[in-house]
């Protein structure tokens, strides 16, 4: 199960690093164009904040355990990313973007599995 949790954490880290970096590095208009209309409802600062949270969560899923410094941060990062996905699912749900809600639910489930495993029976 430890290997499975590493794989899930790595997959989540890759997704959130890419997604968060795009939100951090692109202007709002480009985010709207590439990520969808949801960004119209958010200020540029809020979009950058979401991107930063995603990047920090991605780093927190891997780095603490990889360097064995504060590995207890891994499930905290997973929990934080799960919370971001709840917010994303609510936002997309209100806009009727069911395809995006499905993606959010899958990422939420993966983050919850990582958090459960690293807080519980497979902690570092």
UniProtKB/TrEMBL annotation:
Q: Domain of life, per the record?
A: Bacteria
Gene Ontology CC terms: membrane
Organism listed in the record: Streptomyces lunaelactis
Q: What keywords were assigned to this record?
A: Membrane, Transmembrane, Transmembrane helix
Bilayer disposition of the protein:
Multi-pass membrane protein
Q: What is this protein called?
A: DoxX family protein
Q: Which residues cross the membrane?
A: 46-66, 73-90, 102-119
Query: What InterPro entries would the database entry show?
Result: DoxX
Q: Is Membrane given among the entry's keywords?
A: yes
Where is this chain's protein located in or outside the cell?
Membrane
């Amino acid at each position: 199960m430890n290997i499975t949790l590493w794989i899930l954490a790595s997959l989540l880290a890759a997704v959130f690093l890419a997604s968060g970096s795009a939100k951090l590095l692109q202007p709002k208009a480009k985010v709207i164009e590439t990520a969808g209309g949801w960004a119209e409802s958010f200020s540029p600062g809020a979009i950058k904040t979401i991107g930063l949270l995603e990047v920090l969560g991605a780093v927190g899923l891997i780095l603490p355990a990889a360097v064995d410094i504060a590995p207890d941060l891994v499930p905290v990062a997973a929990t934080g990313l799960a919370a971001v996905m709840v917010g994303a699912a609510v936002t997309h749900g209100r806009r009727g973007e069911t395809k995006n809600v499905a993606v959010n639910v899958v990422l939420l489930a993966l983050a919850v599995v990582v958090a459960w495993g690293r807080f519980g029976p497979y902690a570092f």
